[in-house]
């Protein structure tokens, strides 16, 4: 199967739904780089959509953990003593769950089981990418980890695909030196939600950018 990798959704449900119209589950594995929640108007609906897609297309979908899912998990486990998630969009997300009469605890087990990365022999996909400064790239407390890194990526001999750091001009960026794409095109900032289609060997097929649906923004 080819790969269809989608950037940071951040509660932009209607925009996410529009981009999914371009996914062919018969020929493409869908991989989303994390940060489904926070900032946009419809985090519960975006989360539910991802959850139901994985139920329906288990072998064709991968939803990776982003730093916002990590913060949400910590909060739901009662371990967010500094209200870190609340100050980074979580307070609004909780209000949206109340508005929709939904319980975020229903998703805790699913969120906890999100993988940090997906890879094959040619492509490595994560939320924030591999950087040489990380003591442990899989440690959510490490600021250079796969969840939090904002530094240029190391060239690992595979094409990396990441999100996390918004490209404020709305364009996905390829960095030749590190051999990686950043596809966070600031959907929650009113720009675009981007999907990149690749062959399994990492060869680029197509970049698709959908303008943010204004219903998704506060």
TrEMBL record:
Keywords: Hydrolase. Residues 1-177 form the Calcineurin-like phosphoesterase domain. Pfam families: Metallophos (PF00149). InterPro entries: Ap4A_hydrolase (IPR050126), Calcineurin-like_PHP (IPR004843), Metallo-depent_PP-like (IPR029052), Ser/Thr-sp_prot-phosphatase (IPR006186). The keyword Transmembrane does not apply. GO terms for molecular function: hydrolase activity. The keyword Iron does not apply. Its EC number is 3.1.-.-. CDD domains: MPP_PPP_family. This is Metallophosphoesterase family protein.
């Amino acid at each position: 199967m080819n790969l269809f990798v989608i950037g940071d959704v951040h509660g932009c449900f209607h925009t996410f739904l529009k981009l999914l119209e371009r996914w062919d589950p018969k020929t493409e594995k869908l991989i989303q780089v994390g940060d489904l929640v926070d900032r946009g108007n419809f985090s519960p609906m975006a989360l539910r959509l991802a959850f139901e897609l994985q139920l329906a297309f288990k072998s064709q979908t991968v939803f990776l953990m982003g730093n916002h899912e990590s913060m949400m998990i910590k909060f739901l486990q009662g371990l967010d003593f500094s209200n870190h998630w609340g100050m980074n969009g979580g307070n609004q997300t909780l209000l949206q769950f109340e508005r929709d009469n939904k319980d975020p605890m229903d998703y805790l087990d699913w969120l906890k089981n999100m993988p940090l990365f997906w890879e094959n022999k040619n492509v490595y996909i994560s939320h924030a990418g591999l950087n040489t400064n990380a003591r442990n790239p899989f440690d959510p407390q490490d600021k250079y980890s796969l969840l939090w890194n904002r530094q240029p990526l190391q060239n690992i001999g595979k094409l990396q695909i990441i999100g996390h750091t918004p490209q404020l001009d709305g364009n996905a960026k390829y960095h030749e030196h590190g051999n990686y794409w950043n596809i966070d095109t600031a959907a929650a900032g009113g720009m675009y939600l981007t999907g990149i289609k690749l062959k399994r060997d990492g060869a680029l097929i197509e970049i698709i950018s959908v303008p943010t649906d204004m219903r998704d923004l506060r």
